[in-house]
Write a structure and sequence with these properties.
GO molecular function: kinase activity
Protein name: Histidine kinase
Strand content: 5-15%
Pfam family, one: His_kinase
Keywords: Kinase, Membrane, Transferase, Transmembrane, Transmembrane helix
Order of helices and strands: HHHHHHEHEEHEEHEE
Domain Signal transduction histidine kinase internal region: 155-232
Shape: rod-shaped
Length: 343
């Protein structure tokens, strides 16, 4: 339906342009038979021939020759076309004003007339090629945006697959360990895990979700991830209390949380993980920091794919409207993400 509307809109615009071009000479002429003949001979006939030249290039020659790199053929055909059009123009002009009438000695030399006519016929050719070039660029840009949108959906789906398996298996193993130690806590944990699964499977299928729901998911994710940690790791987070008016793309910050638990925890050393989110000057600001334990060359637990995917998503979702900063300082990994606030 959108494509059909675009076609009709294009036809309407072209029609209006030619109606205006054909109307002006008549509206500016005197109301006499001689004046009308001048309008027909020196305005309408040339405009009609320009229109034919324009659409031959716009519809056929530009796509079939110019954009196919057949430039020589394109030039030769248009030179022949201009010669034919000038011949038609001369023939039609003589029908209204025979040669003796025109050659009164006061007009410009015939060579000058043909030179000007040749230049005038190149105008619709250039116009047609330029317009087709612009349309192709717009179409290419639209296709790029659609491809980027599809890639964004694919990245989100990949994030689903990336999050679900190892996280859920770890959570189930932790719950299994809790069953004998603390049955009530195991029940509560299963309930939280079921909510996470529902959110991942159903609520994140839309392009945007309430930030309140996303924060609730993040809190449950953090709490479940804490189950597999020892007392050597301290985890804190501070998220704002919000209503449903603020919306964000789903699973936008979860890669940062997952990355912190993956690379900020040591079984032998003291570890620290912290997250903070705030609304500042019409921006959502997320900060995270954790102890940094550099990977060895034998550790293949991650290669920064999550952070790289996040950067790409931010570029697609908020071009020139976001900031992403990460650094390692004094043994801590720091990350800060800012995105515009949208209600």
């Amino acid at each position: 339906m959108g494509v059909l509307n675009n076609i009709w809109r294009k036809i309407f615009i072209h029609l209006m342009v030619w109606v205006v071009l054909f109307s002006f000479p008549y509206l500016l002429s005197y109301d006499t038979d001689q004046a009308f003949k001048h309008v027909v001979a020196f305005s309408w006939i040339p405009l009609f021939l320009y229109m034919v030249t324009f659409y031959l290039n716009y519809v056929f020659f530009a796509d079939k020759l110019f954009f196919q790199k057949r430039i020589i053929v394109f030039i030769v055909i248009n030179i022949l076309l201009v010669i034919v059009m000038i011949g038609f123009r001369e023939w039609f002009t003589e029908l209204f004003f025979p040669r003796p009438q025109m050659d009164d000695g006061n007009g410009p030399p015939r060579t000058m007339v043909y030179y000007v006519q040749t230049l005038s016929f190149f105008v619709p050719i250039v116009w047609a090629v330029s317009l087709r070039t612009m349309e192709r660029l717009n179409k290419s840009e639209a296709e790029k945006k659609e491809a980027a949108h599809q890639q964004l959906k694919s990245d989100l789906q990949h994030l689903h697959y990336q999050l679900q398996p190892h996280f859920f298996f770890n959570s189930l193993n932790n719950i299994y360990a809790l069953v004998d130690i603390s049955p009530e806590e195991a029940k509560s944990t299963i309930h939280s895990l079921s909510k996470l699964m529902r959110y991942l499977l159903y609520d994140t299928r839309t392009e945007e979700v309430p930030l309140k729901m996303e924060l609730d998911f993040m809190e449950k994710y953090i709490e479940l991830s804490k189950l597999r940690l020892t007392e050597k790791t301290k985890v804190t987070y501070n998220f704002p209390k919000l209503d449903d008016s603020i919306k964000v793309p789903p699973l936008l910050f979860i890669s940062l949380i997952e990355n912190a638990f993956k690379h900020g925890v040591s079984a032998q050393e003291e570890s620290c993980i912290a997250f903070d989110m705030a609304i500042e000057r019409n921006k959502i600001v997320f900060k995270g920091w954790n102890t940094d334990f550099p990977k060895t060359h034998t550790d293949h637990s991650g290669s920064g794919i999550g952070l790289r995917n996040l950067k790409e998503r931010l570029e697609l979702l908020y071009p020139n409207e976001h900031s992403f900063n990460q650094e390692i300082s004094s043994g801590y990994f720091h990350v800060k993400v800012e995105i515009p606030l949208k209600g």
